[in-house]
TrEMBL record:
Keywords: Cell membrane, Membrane, Transmembrane, Transmembrane helix. The chain crosses the membrane at residues 12-33, 39-60, 81-103, 115-133, 154-185, 205-229, 249-266, 286-304. It comes from Nocardioides panaciterrulae. This is Probable membrane transporter protein. It is found in: Cell membrane; Membrane. One of its GO terms (cellular component) is plasma membrane.
Length: 335
């Protein structure tokens, strides 16, 4: 027991709690935030962190999926095709990255950090794209008009395969990349159906990824236990306080954090254009990227709003854009 309760234990517990709150507030998948947080805490190698993260996700996502299933919110036909695509590739992903890395010491850790870095940048891009699509939906009048659309099997299968491969290798993608793909494939899918479907399909996805990673990398219980203990109450708290928190700032902030984390991991891995390597980073460069995004992201968002005929700032907020029927409740005619 003494080996478990350490300073590292409380660091992971705190990180899990904070990330859990953000997940509860926004509905975003935790892998995109938790995996880089654990790597930067230095609690283990990248493979060890990915394994613990997907295993924890398999535990806490199951509870959310059961809740949504009881309320009838998932589109089970859609979830079925996603699972058929995602599970085989989630099982394959860890074996593929090990084969590419080869037997050289440290090569797997470096390759995983690069893969996670690029996955975080992809997650940031897709998350920003999701906000923009919701903005266009509000202005065009497309809302929850078709909550149960006919399933398009092949594109849905391919989305599942891409998400499964990403999650199997990096633990990033189940709550970001798949969500935006569903939003683009099924624009009439309501927000509740979107979240419910994603949660239901994510359970077998992350479970398959966890099984493969555990077989290859083993499971570090000293990471998993505090991660679950911290993230579970954090997610519950985040969900409860979500209506009282200005999510516009949080959601745009996530894009900035994901971008900075992705660049920092690529830097840490020694990726050639940045190339610090050997677990070093260029903190000034990463800080400047963050400062630039703090200034630039709100400006870009404001111009996009103006393009859609909305005020540069103000209502509808980012959170309101994701609520079904916002236009109708505010008596705003479709354009």
């Amino acid at each position: 027991m003494g080996d478990l309760i350490t300073t590292t234990f409380f660091s992971i517990l705190a990180a899990g709690f904070v990330v859990g709150i953000v997940v509860g507030l926004t509905g975003m998948g935790g892998g995109a935030l938790m995996t880089p947080a654990l790597i930067f805490l230095g609690v283990g190698g990248a493979a060890t962190v990915v394994t613990a993260d997907v295993t924890a996700a398999a535990i806490y996502k199951a509870g959310g999926a059961v809740t949504h299933a009881r309320e009838g919110s998932p589109n089970l036909a859609l979830a079925k095709w996603l699972v058929l695509g995602s599970v085989p590739f989630a099982l394959l992903g860890p074996w593929l990255i090990h084969a590419v890395a080869g037997p050289e010491p440290g090569s797997l850790d470096t390759l995983l950090k690069e893969a996670i870095g690029f996955a975080l940048l992809l997650a940031a891009t897709t998350y920003a794209l999701r906000l923009y699509i919701n903005l266009r939906r509000v202005r065009s009048g497309v809302g929850d008009a078709d909550p149960n659309p006919p399933v398009r099997p092949i594109p849905t299968l391919l989305v599942g395969a891409l998400g499964g491969l990403l999650v199997g290798i990096t633990s990033v993608g189940s709550g970001s990349v798949i969500m935006i793909a569903l939003l683009m494939l099924y624009p009439g899918l309501s927000a509740v159906k979107l979240v419910g479907t994603d949660l239901v399909q994510a359970v077998p996805l992350v479970l398959a990824a966890a099984i493969s990673n555990i077989i290859l990398n083993g499971l570090d219980w000293t990471i998993l236990i505090p991660l679950v203990l911290g993230s579970t109450p954090g997610t519950i708290l985040g969900a409860r306080i979500a209506p009282k928190v200005p999510q516009s700032f949080i959601r745009r902030g996530i894009v900035i954090v994901l971008t900075m984390s992705g660049i920092a991991l690529l830097d840490k891995s020694g990726w050639a254009p940045l190339g610090a390597g050997e677990d070093q980073t260029h903190p000034v460069l990463i800080g400047l990227v963050g400062i630039a995004m703090v200034v630039v992201v709100p400006l870009i968002w404001g111009f996009l709003r103006k393009e859609q005929g909305l005020p540069f700032m103000g209502a509808p907020t980012v959170a309101e854009l994701e609520r079904p029927g916002w236009k109708r409740r505010n008596h705003e005619p479709a354009e």
